[in-house]
Amino acid sequence: MANMLIVYSTTDGHTPRICERLRAVIEAQGQHRVTVMPVADCTVEDLARCDSVVIGASIRYGKHHPRVAEFIARHQSALDSRPNALFSVNVVARKPGKDVPEGNPYLQKFLRRIAWKPRLLAVFAGRIDYPSLGFLDRNMIRFIMLITKGPTDPNGVFEFTDWAKVEAFGAELARM
Ligand SMILES: Cc1cc2nc3c(=O)[nH]c(=O)nc-3n(C[C@H](O)[C@H](O)[C@H](O)COP(=O)(O)O)c2cc1C
User: Fold this and answer.
1) How wide is the angle at C-alpha 40 spanned by C-alphas 118 and 113, nearest 5°?
2) Burial class, 136, CB count within 10 angstroms (exposed 0-12 / middle 13-18 / buried 19+)
3) Residue 114 contacts residue 69 (beta carbons within 8 Å)
4) pLDDT in tens, 124-174
5) Which residue, of 62, 76, 174, 176, is most buried by count of CB atoms within 10 Å of its CB?
6) Helix or strand holding residue 52 (H, E)
C-alpha cells in the first residue's frame, strides 16, 4: 500500500468535502492509504512519510490563502521528489471555459506566482451557503453573483461542484 497525503486550505469547509470524496475514490482502487489534513497541520514528517502528495485550496476574494504558497515554497523539494498534484476550488469554475486548469484565472495566476510545477492540475466549482455567511461577505458575494449572472437568493445554498469530475480526478490521482 502506498501512502497518499492530501492537504487542504479552506474557509467554509467545502474543500475538505472534495478531499474526502477523492479519498473514497482513491482508497476504493485498493492501492493507496490516504491521509487528509489541513495544510496548517502538515509537518515535514508527514511529508516524509507519504509517497505522493496533493494540495487543494479554495479561493476567497480572488486569492488562495497565503499559507498555501508558503507551504509550497517551504516544501518544494519534498513535493518535487514524489508524484504530486494541485487543485483549486472557486465559483468562477462554474462557468464553461473557466472549469479547466488552463482557463481558470485564479489557478493560472497562482501557477505564475509559485516555482512548483504540479504534475496534475484540477479546478472544481465550489459552494455558496448564503445563510452561513456574515452580512458583509453574503452581500459581497451576492453582488459578484449579480454581475456574473449567478444566484443571489440570500436564503439559498448553491452547490456548483461537479462530483463526477471530482471522482474522475480521484481515479487519475490513483494512477499517478
Ligand atoms: C467571502 C467569500 C469570498 C469568495 N470569493 C471568491 C472569488 O473571489 N472568486 C471565486 O471564484 N469564488 C469566490 N468564493 C467562492 C468560494 O471559493 C467557494 O465558496 C468555495 O466553495 C469555498 O471553499 P471552502 O469552503 O473550502 O473555503 C468566495 C466565497 C466567499 C464566502
Assistant:
1) 40
2) exposed
3) yes
4) 999 999 999 999 999 999 999 999 899 999 999 999 999 999 999 999 999
5) 174
6) strand 52-60
Report how far ligand 1's centroid is from the alpha carbon of 144 (Å).
Answer: 11
Vertex 41, ends 31 and 124: CA angle to 5°?
60
Name which residue sits closest to atom 3 of ligand 1, judged by CA.
60
Nearest-angstrom CA–CA distance, 95 and 148? 10
| Residue 81 Cα to ligand 1 middle (Å) | 31
Percent of the chain residues topping a pLDDT of 90: 99
**Does the Cβ of 128 fall within 6 Å of ligand 1?**
yes
Beta bridge partners of 91: none
How many CA atoms, within 13 angstroms, populate the side-chain half-sphere of residue 150? Answer: 24
CB 7 within 8 A of CB 37: yes
